[in-house]
Design brief:
By secondary structure, the chain is an alpha+beta fold. The protein has two domains: 2-19 and 232-441, UDP-n-acetylglucosamine1-carboxyvinyl-transferase, Chain (Alpha-beta prism), CATH 3.65.10; 22-229, Enolpyruvate transferase domain (UDP-n-acetylglucosamine1-carboxyvinyl-transferase, Chain), CATH 3.65.10.10. The protein is built from 15 helices and 23 strands. The chain has helices at 22-31, 48-60, 85-88, 98-105, 124-132, 165-175, 191-202, 234-246, 262-270, 309-317, 337-342, 357-360, 394-406, 417-420, 426-431, and strands at residues 2-7, 13-17, 39-42, 63-67, 70-74, 107-111, 136-140, 145-149, 157-159, 181-185, 206-211, 214-218, 227-229, 250-254, 273-279, 282-287, 296-297, 321-326, 346-350, 375-380, 388-390, 410-414, 436-441. Strand 15 (273-279) and strand 16 form a beta hairpin. The relative contact order is 0.16. Bound molecules: uridine-diphosphate-2(N-acetylglucosaminyl) butyric acid. Uridine-diphosphate-2(N-acetylglucosaminyl) butyric acid (EPU) is lined by residues 22-23, 26, 93, 116, 119, 121-126, 163-167, 190, 300, 305-307, 329-331, 362-364, 394-395, 422.
């Protein structure tokens, strides 16, 4: 249990290199279950979620070794297809083992997943799709486990009722070794999924996107090991870009993937943010000092990602006018608001006018928390002041770090292990940009 002590008010300036994408690293580690040959994965971020995924795989019998940002993974046979509750509860993606284990070994037992508590976060779309491929999956409410088995997974044409990022990936991980052809319709389009597809293709899988939201997979008998370097983390880039701009600084981001940030850059420019393409993989983010309140509505890719809305809210506290954020992907992603209010932000909740919420929202409307709002308005610019803050989820954590970097005075942020889930050594990297941030070990 560590805390950050941050003294805000310093414009962040300098260069920062974006780490490998968390949301690819986790999935490629799960993909290692598809082969008994060695997988060598490069550019793996040193973050807590990767450690947790390695714990999940180790329980299953996977051996691994690490050398900096490279991980070597091998396994000959899964000796235990059951993920213990305490390991799984800490990592939502642990349930993705259902895909490869059903395809290769015909059985898997895994608890209802944990991870960031962003509302109900069920996995009904994953489970129903696996059933269409011939899996028998029973949920035991007494112990909270999914018990899954399949004599042989077969191809199927599966239409996801709504977008699901990890659902699409779980099905890919099952379909690559299933008998025959699987077609995933209304599949998710995030670039991280295409990076997973590129790795699976190198392993010998036959996968193509026949349309932006349609993926066709021809099942293979066997996949082999490979060496793969994962893409840069888009969410880190957005976080650091906002960190630079919101502190009135000037930040150069290396390992940039701005080609995958179109929706962010559109709104960012409308708000008065500037960027300069230094080269293919290097982007400078800065402003001329004036930001305009700009509304966003979150959507799955290629829209404005839900992961960016919390950092965006901090930026909007420094913009002129009233802006709105309408969250449509998760039903509970404003946990940071109560903390920003403590710092003097002017934020109010509202209920956006939506004609048919069940169709409009990406989450299942029936799962929503009664009384929870999907919209906020932010009035700026505001001089934020220091506070003692509590982190509730990963992106909210990074958001509070940004807010404390802006605020006058010394802020204390508890629960930084949430930030460690997805950002490698964030304090050291921000310090290199001039931030006054210290990690204090708590007993
Ligand atoms: N949903 C269901 N049932 C399902 C699947 C999803 O109701 O079977 C709901 C979810 O509760 C959510 C919405 O549908 O409200 C979208 O869920 P999706 O499955 O697309 O998201 P995810 O796979 O759980 C991943 C990322 C998130 C990112 C979202 C959106 C990983 C490990 N997580 O979550 O990243 O915000 O896609 O792109 O890839 C993060 O990195 O901090 C993070 C939360």
């Amino acid at each position: 249990m560590d805390k950050f002590i941050i003294t805000g008010g310093v414009p962040l300036k300098g260069e920062i290199t974006v780490a490998g994408a968390k949301n690819v690293a986790l999935k490629i580690l799960v993909a290692s279950l598809l082969t008994d040959e060695e997988m060598v994965v490069h550019n793996v971020p040193l973050i807590r979620d990767v450690d947790l995924m390695l714990d999940v795989l180790a329980v299953l019998g996977v051996k691994y070794s690490r050398d900096g940002h490279t991980i070597h993974v091998t396994h000959n046979h899964i000796h235990n297809a059951k993920v213990p509750l305490d390991v799984a509860a800490r990592l939502r993606t642990s349930s993705m083992i259902l895909g490869p284990l059903l395809a290769r070994y015909g059985a898997a037992t895994t608890p209802n997943p944990g991870g960031c508590r962003l509302g109900a976060r069920p996995i009904d779309r994953h489970i129903n799709a696996l059933k269409e491929m011939g899996a028998d999956i029973q949920y035991h409410s007494d112990d909270g486990y999914f018990y899954a088995k399949a004599k042989e997974l077969h191809g199927a044409t599966i239409r996801f009722p709504k977008n699901t990022h990890t659902g699409t990936e779980t099905l890919l991980l099952a379909a690559v070794l299933a008998r025959g052809r699987t077609i995933l319709e209304n599949a998710a389009q995030e670039p991280e999924i295409d990076d997973l597809i590129a790795c699976l293709t190198q392993m010998g899988a036959n996968i193509r996107r026949s349309a932006p939201r349609t993926i066709v997979i021809e099942g293979a008998k066997k996949l082999h090991g490979t060496e793969y370097s994962i893409m840069a983390d888009r969410n880190e880039e957005v976080t650091f870009a906002i960190a630079g701009v919101v502190t009135a600084g000037d930040v150069i981001i290396k390992n940039s993937s701005r080609h995958n940030l179109g929706a962010f850059l559109d709104v960012y420019q409308r708000a008065g943010g500037k960027f300069q393409e230094i080269d293919d993989r290097t982007t400078r983010y800065y402003t001329d000092g004036y930001l305009t309140a700009t509304d966003i509505v979150t959507h799955p890719h290629p829209g404005f990602m839900t992961d960016w809305q919390a950092p965006w809210a901090v930026l909007m506290t420094q913009a002129n006018g009233i802006s709105c954020i309408h969250e449509t992907v998760f039903e509970s992603r404003f946990s940071y608001v109560s903390q920003l209010l403590k710092m003097g932000a002017h934020i109010e909740f509202f209920d956006p006018d939506v004609e048919d919420p069940e169709t409009f929202y990406n989450f299942n409307w029936a799962d929503r928390v009664e009384g929870y709002h999907q919209g906020i308005t932010i009035r700026g610019p505001t001089t934020l002041h220091n506070a003692v803050l509590e982190i509730n989820d990963l992106r909210a954590g990074a958001t509070l770090v940004l807010a404390a970097l802006v605020a006058a005075g010394e802020s204390v942020i508890h629960g930084v292990e949430q930030v460690d889930r997805g950002y490698e050594k964030i304090e050291e990297r921000l310090r290199a940009l001039g931030a006054r941030i210290q990690r204090i070990k708590e007993e």
